[in-house]
Amino acid sequence: MTDTVFVLAASALALGTPLLFAALGELVSERAGVLNIGVEGLMLTGAFAGFLGCWATGSPLAGMAAAAAAAAVLGLVLALWIVGLDADQVVAGAALNILALGLTGVAYRAVFGVTGGQYQPQGHVQVVVNLLDHGMGPQAVLDAPRYRLEEDGTVSLESPLADLVGAFGARTSAVVDADDNYGNGHLIVRRPDGRLVGGTEPRRDGLAVGV
Hints:
By secondary structure, this protein is mainly α. It has two domains: 2-112, no CATH class; 119-199, Glutamine Phosphoribosylpyrophosphate, subunit 1, domain 1 (4-Layer Sandwich). It has six helices and five strands; from the N terminus they run ααααααβββββ. The protein has helices at residues 2-31, 39-57, 60-84, 89-112, 119-132, 138-143; strands spanning 147-149, 155-157, 174-176, 187-190, 196-199. The strands form two sheets. The protein has a three-stranded mixed beta sheet with strand order 1-2-3. A two-stranded antiparallel ribbon has the order 4-5. Strand 1 and strand 2 (155-157) form a beta hairpin. The radius of gyration is 23 Å and the shape is extended. The model has no long low-confidence stretch (mean pLDDT 82).
């Protein structure tokens, strides 16, 4: 029970702090007479720009600068709508949220490719089967080669499974595809003795660290 309360409290602090900062910013706007409904869009845009800046440069400071710049630009767009074009504050803020949601989604897919899709659940199933049915450890599960079923019925195999291409016969086409779009994930397993054992996806950047 104590562990559950601790986890809930820690999660509340971790998830609530960004919202608190946004609420403080909105409070300043309210004192200035501006109803900034678009604060969610500003947060989303800043989060994406910060992640992208940090990923591209490897510098957290560059990520913070990118987040601030992107949110400031979107804030200027909102100010133009409300002050320059005399738009309704509520409507303009809601429109900004929708704009940010669409822009960040499209930009993410443009930079990193389609997230999830039909390949993600296929990868997850293979991870769970290896974990539960074959008794493999978390890191071994994630390291194991995978396959995927394409929309045209072709089976794509990772390179270590190349020897299985001939086993599919004439009715099913199987090819070796070297890309890494076989689903991705990170894994933490609680052992019966209470120990936590983690594994990280070798197809993406990641690290399993014990504390």
